[in-house]
Amino acid sequence: MSVVPNATVAIHRCRTKSISLQRDAMKRCVAPVFKIGPWRVDRIRVVCFVCVACLILSTKTASAAESLKASIDKESAWTGEAVLMVITLYSPGPFDGTASFDLPELSRTSIIKIGNPVVGSEDVGDESFLTQRHEFNIYTQRSGTIVIPPFEVRFRGKESFVGDVKSVNATTSELKFESKRPPGTDSLGVVIATEKLNCEQSWTPDSLAHLKAGDVIERTVTRRVTGTSSIMLSPASSAAPEGIRVYTSDPEVVDKVTRGELDASRVDTIKYQVQKPGTFELPELTFTWWDPKAEKLQQTTLDGLTLTVAALPVGEQSSESAATTPTEKPYTSWAMGVSLLVALAVLYRPVKRIVEARRLSYHSVAARASREVRSACRANDARAAYAAVLAWCRIHSDRHEPLSPEDLFGDEWNRLSSYLFASGRTLSGWSGSPLLHAFNAAVKRRENHQRQRSRASLPAINPSH
């Protein structure tokens, strides 16, 4: 009777031990997968953190490379010396249109765009981008640290060679450089920093031996500089002694880039009118500039001129005064005045309508677009001509008759597009004269076509039944 309970207890113990062994086996099999020590968890967290940080940094670097890159060529410059700022735009596909730069306005500092953008390509990591290199010259008359704050750049480019065009708004990084005032220039108004400045002058008329009161002497002063812009050349002095009236005209300024070097010139024309007889000394002109290569002030002087003006004979004076004050009969002036009033009263309304129609036509959007195209072509400004032609086609297009620059201007439009955007272009410059002729011909054809359509739409004078 005591054997059965012992057997039952033994069987129970065997089952309990078997279950325990099975649990231990499962723990040993599952432990390498789920049971991870604290040191292993920390290592995984660190590795994950490093991977995420690298991914973020690489993403930021890639996005920056795909947008733009801004830099300046020197950390220190003399006051008035040109500091080159380069902005490179990146696009996966071809660029579309003209880039826009919101250049900051700084006190006594100018930022000037030079040359045309240079199109190229650049590999960033495993990807290849098309680039546009834009160059600007920075001129400042301040000393100390010059800070160029971040500014926005807008351009359009394709996501791939066959993709859609998208707009890109990017912001440059902050740029700075040190401006040092050249010694001995504290008394100068504007410091010109250039290695070479040529000055010359000419006088008109050539012979000044027989001058009389009322005659005009013209003085033309020409200055040419290298490595700086014409805006840095201040106007030539127009000082003159008492008894001489001075007239000045707008200067002729030219800036051009030759093989990557900026050349500029300024031509000032000063006219001296002698008011009375006597001897007069026209002053000499002195120009001073700073040579950054030699690190010293340079100076050149243009000679003045001595004028001897003789008095007019008495008879000649009276004849000239009589010629300048002709006599008129009173009734003649009265009749002319009445006739003028009558003519104004009769023609006022027709003339007003004509003037108003001309004014509206001149200030219309279409006329303004045509003027911008012609102005850009005459100035040989390829970028402005490209944008103006697109705007003109957009204004004159409608939903039923869209205008295409390729159809209107043909080879000239393709030549302009290749000059601006072709990666392997070899042209040294672009002339807007052929495109201007093609544009005028297209406008004339369009006007003739519209005139014929308007005539065809008129009803017949004697319609037949």
TrEMBL record:
<feature type="domain" description="DUF7939">
    <location>
        <begin position="368"/>
        <end position="445"/>
    </location>
</feature>
<dbReference type="InterPro" id="IPR025738">
    <property type="entry name" value="BatD"/>
</dbReference>
<dbReference type="Pfam" id="PF25607">
    <property type="entry name" value="DUF7939"/>
</dbReference>
<protein>
    <recommendedName>
        <fullName>DUF7939 domain-containing protein</fullName>
    </recommendedName>
</protein>
<dbReference type="InterPro" id="IPR057699">
    <property type="entry name" value="DUF7939"/>
</dbReference>
